[in-house]
Design brief:
Blueprint: E1 5-10, H1 14-25, E2 38-40, E3 46-51, H2 53-62, E4 67-71, H3 72-82, E5 89-93, E6 99-106, E7 121-124, H4 127-136, E8 142-145, E9 161-166, H5 170-174, E10 177-186, E11 188-192, H6 199-219, E12 222-229, H7 233-239, E13 247-251, E14 254-264, H8 270-278, E15 282-288
Parallel strand pairs: 1-3, 1-4, 7-8, 7-9
Antiparallel strand pairs: 2-3, 4-11, 5-11, 6-9, 6-10, 12-14, 12-15, 13-14
Helix pairs in contact: 3-4
Length: 294
């Protein structure tokens, strides 16, 4: 019987969509159908478990799933609630589904700073993370747990403020709220337990994470190609953001001109291109990288 690795993923929502996209960028072929709880990868021995996000860490801890993709905020909440009983740790950060866990309050209300929280109630879906933050900052406030519609709490007098996830801030603005403190910067993470996977599953895991790492590295990387005077090589390579040793190629028929090619792992801004041009670069081409494996 073929050994298959199990990977738990949120069934619906932004994290689900971005997780599916990342896996498909890794070359995995699968389809998700309706309310199905299992998706079989056709070209690699991997099964996707499609579950609620707050079940993923527990499934990994209990051995129901070998790996999981979950928001760091959800993992931390489970770690605070379950403590040492939870055997699920971050294996690697995945760089998508970024958001912030923030404290927010009515824009013109009585709560505008951390000190204003003393003696008040704070509505949240993350009582563990919030409680730890309040303790660390010596704030005497009461977390009120809500499973949804947290942003309504101040309006219906359940709490004076909220602690909730913020992506664009549009939901806060629509409810007359303003964020005044970020508690956590969160993103999607790959999690696993401390238990050994076994030889066969370890081999599948190694293939998967090698591809994931390649996708993560290539996401914000650009391939820069340009021609430049030989005398300006040092100045120009210093301007290329996050690049290792660039490739320098002599151009036939012109001893004073070279082609420079480099993988830049940081953002290449218009200002970067202008600075390159000011230093003698020409025919500058910046292209995205689809896959990159070291």
């Amino acid at each position: 019987m073929t050994v298959r690795l199990r990977l738990a993923i949120q069934k619906k929502g932004r994290l689900a969509e971005e997780s599916f996209a990342a896996l498909k960028n890794c070359g995995l072929r699968f389809s998700v159908r309706g309310d199905g709880l299992l998706a079989r990868v056709n070209n690699m021995p991997i099964d996707l478990l499609l579950v609620r996000d707050d079940d993923i860490a527990g499934f990994v801890s209990e051995g129901v799933s070998d790996l999981g993709i979950v928001g760091e905020n959800v993992l931390l909440e489970e770690q605070y609630v379950q403590g040492s009983k939870l055997d699920a740790q971050i294996d690697r950060r995945l760089g998508f589904s970024r958001c912030r866990l923030c404290l927010a309050a009515p824009e013109n209300g009585n709560v505008q700073t951390l000190q204003d929280l003393n003696g008040t109630r704070i509505a949240t879906s993350y009582p563990g993370v919030l409680g730890n933050f309040l303790t660390e900052n010596q704030i005497d406030a009461i977390p009120v747990t809500m499973k949804g519609a947290v942003e309504l709490a101040p309006r219906i007098d359940i709490a004076a403020s909220i602690c909730d996830l913020v992506s664009s801030g549009a939901t806060l603005e629509a409810n007359g709220l303003k964020a005044f403190q970020t508690i956590l910067e969160s993103e999607a993470v790959l999690i696993k337990s401390a238990r050994p996977l076994g030889r066969d599953k370890q081999a599948i895991y190694d293939r998967l994470v090698r591809r994931l790492d390649a996708v993560i590295r290539s996401k914000d990387s650009k391939y820069v190609m340009l021609n430049a005077p030989r005398s300006k090589i040092e100045d120009i390579t210093r301007l290329l953001p996050g690049s290792d040793a660039p490739t320098i190629i002599p151009l036939p028929g012109d001893d004073d001109l070279v082609a420079i090619q480099a993988v830049c792992t940081e953002t290449v801004f218009w200002e970067t291109l202008e600075a390159l041009k000011d230093n003698g670069a020409r025919s500058i081409l910046v292209v995205p990288i689809e896959k990159m494996m070291s």
